[in-house]
Write a sequence for this structure.
């Protein structure tokens, strides 16, 4: 019997296996280091998934570490949201840490580098530093303050810590090589002055370490074996290793870079997402058109669908753009297997069965989840007056129109075959009521006569008025005309459409986050604004799948 083929390893797994064999590693530790200055979005989730899943695959641990070295826009609100999102996805961390937990250690190590003669206090302004830095093709030049004595640098650095200087007046820089072909190695800043209260440490500090200095220190102290990060940090890896070496850590983490996630019609820049929220282009971070996890959750995305998507796109070294239709495909597949089929009419017209007695109702049974017997059936009241979708009737139908039309027949889901006899329209020609007769010998399950069309419906007497929010992509494709535009000019004006219709009564009692397939329409989720008295549903994804495997 042929052995089952193993899934090919990605390059990160190969590196980790190599390190285990060559270094005899007894354990694997990764870390997920989000900055708490916003909500996690689908791009962050790729990094999150890689960090946690690699640790799981090799029987290791993953730390959650909040990268809070820049206090300007960091808030506890974002800390709480990130923790919630990680657990919602089904992951948990070993140690919960903050970058600010290591501020004392970073300071002492900065002093160590000054004493070693590989760090100095610089008085150049930002603009002057940029000028001295050089370009990608021209080397930089040394700062006039580069050769200060160790004693002077120590004195100035302690005075920086004590709050003696204004923001931007001085920085601490690593002394490496201003002629390095890697511009990140041209004496990068490792400490700056910021007289800003910190969400975690209060006013204890007025100087803060730069990410490129703090991050390798944090990794080394925590015993991280593999520091997995996105591709833009590849050019920073020599600086990462320089910090580890100069700080003389015995434990040396390995940095490995992977391609970021880019999705069509999707903004991943946290700066731009913040603009959308702050300038009220969207209702908030959880607006279902946003790519944030809280927004995807509100729209109806499931952890299973998101993780399936991440598995499908894989781990690559080269940047690419993924069709957002793949993410929708994964959600559609997940919900198809577990979302109850319910009846809703988004754009209603009334249907009256003229030969049905006015005071008579009959309970018909509808399947909750086809192909799942355990889900059972539910009873729905069928009566004389119903609502159907406006698109399901045409008085001047095109060819091969198998829905309701004058003198045409359709089956009403779970009930009877009806035939259209006439209709009413207003002065603008808009149909208001369709009249039919039913054939009492055609009850579903008891009749072999077939018709080509089957329509869903809700009972007009019991139906509950509801709001439906239909979402499309927030962003249009970037036109290939070479003209630069502000990203807000590319926003889709039709990214949300509001409809008011009816749902079957059971849906009024649903809870925010409940998933349904509204028959013949799409997959929907009960919204946070929902109440039994005013039901609200978000369209998660349509029934039609445009993604090609």
């Amino acid at each position: 019997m042929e052995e089952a083929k193993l899934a090919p390893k990605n390059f990160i797994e190969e590196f980790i296996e190599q390190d285990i064999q060559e270094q005899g590693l007894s354990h694997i530790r990764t870390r997920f280091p989000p900055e708490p200055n916003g909500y996690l979005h689908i791009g962050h989730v790729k990094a999150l998934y890689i960090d946690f899943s690699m640790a799981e695959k090799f029987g290791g641990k993953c730390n959650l570490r909040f990268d809070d070295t820049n206090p300007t826009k960091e808030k506890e609100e974002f800390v709480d949201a990130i923790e919630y999102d990680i657990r919602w996805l089904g992951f948990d961390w070993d140690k919960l840490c903050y970058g600010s937990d290591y501020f004392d250690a970073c300071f002492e190590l900065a002093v160590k580098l000054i004493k070693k003669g590989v760090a100095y206090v610089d008085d150049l302004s930002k603009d002057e530093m940029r000028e001295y830095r050089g370009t990608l093709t021209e080397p930089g030049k040394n700062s006039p303050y580069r050769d200060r004595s160790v004693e002077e640098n120590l004195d100035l650095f302690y005075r920086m810590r004590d709050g003696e200087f204004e923001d931007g007046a001085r920085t601490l820089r690593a002394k490496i090589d201003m002629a390095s072909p890697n511009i990140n190695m041209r004496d990068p800043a490792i400490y700056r002055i910021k007289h800003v209260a910190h969400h975690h440490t209060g006013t204890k500090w007025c100087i803060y370490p730069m990410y490129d200095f703090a991050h390798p220190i944090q990794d080394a102290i925590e015993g991280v074996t593999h520091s997995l990060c996105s591709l833009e940090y590849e050019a920073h890896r020599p600086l990462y290793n320089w910090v580890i070496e100069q700080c003389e850590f015995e434990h040396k983490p390995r940095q490995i870079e992977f391609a970021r996630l880019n999705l069509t019609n999707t903004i991943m820049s946290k700066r731009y997402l913040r603009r959308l929220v702050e300038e009220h282009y969207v209702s908030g971070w959880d607006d279902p058109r946003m790519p944030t996890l809280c927004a995807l959750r509100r729209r109806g995305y499931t952890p299973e669908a998101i993780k399936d998507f991440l598995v499908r796109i894989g781990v690559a070294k080269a940047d690419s753009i993924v069709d957002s239709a793949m993410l929708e495909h994964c959600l559609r597949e997940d919900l198809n297997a577990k979302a109850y089929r319910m009846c809703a009419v988004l754009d209603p017209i009334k249907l009256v069965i003229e030969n049905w007695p006015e005071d008579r109702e009959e309970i018909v049974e509808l399947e909750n989840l086809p192909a799942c017997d355990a889900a059972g059936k539910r009873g729905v009241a069928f009566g004389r007056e119903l609502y159907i979708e406006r698109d399901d009737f045409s008085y001047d139908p095109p060819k091969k129109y198998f829905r309701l039309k004058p003198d045409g027949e359709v089956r009403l889901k779970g009930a009877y075959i009806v035939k259209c006899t006439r209709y009413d329209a207003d002065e603008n020609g808009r149909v208001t009521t369709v009249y039919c007769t039913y054939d009492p010998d055609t009850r579903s399950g008891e009749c072999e006569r077939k018709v080509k069309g089957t329509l869903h419906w809700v009972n007009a007497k019991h139906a509950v008025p509801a709001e439906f929010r239909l979402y499309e992509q927030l962003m249009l494709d970037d036109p290939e005309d070479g003209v630069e535009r502000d990203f807000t000019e590319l926003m889709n004006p039709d990214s949300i459409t509001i409809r008011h219709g009816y749902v079957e009564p059971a849906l009024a009692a649903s809870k925010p986050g409940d998933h349904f397939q509204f028959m013949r329409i799409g997959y929907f989720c009960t919204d946070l604004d929902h109440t039994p008295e005013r039901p609200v549903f978000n369209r998660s994804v349509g029934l039609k799948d445009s993604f090609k495997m």
User: Anything to note?
Assistant: Residues 1-6 have pLDDT under 50 and may be disordered. Residues 267 and 273 are 7 Å apart (CA to CA). The first strand starts at residue 29 and ends at 32.
